[in-house]
Design brief:
The protein is an alpha/beta fold. Helices cover about 40% and strands about 15% of the residues. β4, α4 and β5 form a beta-alpha-beta unit. α2 crosses α6. It comes from Sphingosinicella rhizophila.
């Protein structure tokens, strides 16, 4: 995998000029007196950072003369939404292969953006992420080079807006956000450490770093935290993650629910589980500051939000 350099990131920024917004850095006070900084990608037009990687992937292909009438992807919802948004702006269609664990709010947004949905059992959907796909119209939601450059614009913005950032906390889905943010920081000359946030539902990077090679881990696909974690790492992402990431922080699912509640009550922002995982890690851990929490997405089912605000920890299905 080629890690995007500064020229790649600048090009991606140009491709995203009419699609994505430059999100601000917002101070947020923790109960113990510490202050962190939030990078709220939940403010993007599609509610997540995925507009950056998806938009960069689509617009880069169009710039190179790829005139596919329809693109496709395998996505739990957020990347497919970004892809559908970008394709709608350019008069193209999208077919989204989604896992049966995808949140209802994400499904509804995909339909609203005009995507065609194809449901798959989680295991079959996961295979689409780890197996090679030679369809030129298929855009991988994690490892696409143009997509990584789009994600890197987040790191570039952090470096420009907070040059002395000490730690950037990023949730781990497939790894594209983490590698992209780290690449953008590096390209801009930032010395900030990138720490990956994983949860008790499944922490494959933490286990793989401890083992020195990729390993499978138990994974609970029934938590309210969709779009992050999994039973294993994507093979294509392991070398880049090992090179670019400074460490990990594993937080309990209940602490992620707490972070969702705090963001709603004090930050007046709705984050999904993956989006709030970085704040949960900041609350639990101790890191060199200033600490930036990337809030990756805001697609949380309304019923889950209600349960969390009432002090609960929702599930999408009973534990096995």
């Amino acid at each position: 995998m080629r890690i995007p350099g500064l020229e790649d990131v600048i090009a991606a920024r140009g491709h995203l000029a009419d699609l994505a917004v430059r999100t601000p850095l917002l101070p947020f006070a923790l109960d113990d007196g510490r202050e962190v900084v939030l990078k709220p990608e939940i403010l993007q037009p599609v509610g997540s950072f995925k507009i950056r990687c998806a938009g960069s992937a689509v617009m880069s292909r169009i710039a190179r003369g790829n005139c596919s009438a329809t693109f496709s992807t395998a996505s739990a919802g957020n990347f497919a939404q970004g892809l559908a948004w970008a394709c709608r702006q350019s008069g193209r269609g999208v077919t989204a292969y989604v896992p049966d664990t995808a949140a209802t709010s994400k499904r509804e947004a995909l339909i609203r953006f005009g995507a065609t949905l194809v449901d798959l059992p989680f295991a079959d959907w996961w295979k689409m992420l780890v197996e090679d796909n030679d369809d030129p119209a298929f855009i991988h939601p994690v490892s696409d080079p143009d997509g990584l450059a789009g994600n890197a614009t987040i790191g570039l913005e952090i470096a420009e807006d907070l040059p002395d950032a000490g730690t950037v906390l990023v949730p781990l889905g497939g790894g594209g956000l983490a590698v992209g943010v780290a690449a953008g920081l590096r390209a801009a000359g930032s010395k900030a450490r990138v720490i990956i946030c994983e949860t008790g539902a499944g922490a494959p990077l933490t286990a793989s770093l401890q083992a020195g090679h990729p390993v499978d881990v138990p994974f609970d696909s029934g938590t309210f935290i969709t779009g992050m974690g999994g039973p294993s790492l994507l093979p294509s992402m392991w070398p880049a993650l090992k090179e670019m990431i400074s460490g990990t922080e594993v937080v309990p699912v209940a602490k992620v629910a707490e972070a969702v509640r705090l963001l709603a009550e004090r930050g007046h922002m709705i984050a999904e589980g993956a989006g709030a995982a970085s704040l949960a890690a900041a609350i639990q851990g101790s890191f060199d500051g200033p600490v930036v929490c990337v809030l990756s997405g805001g697609h949380l089912d309304t019923n889950h939000l209600i349960e969390i605000l009432q002090g609960g920890v929702p599930r999408t299905k009973p534990p096995v």
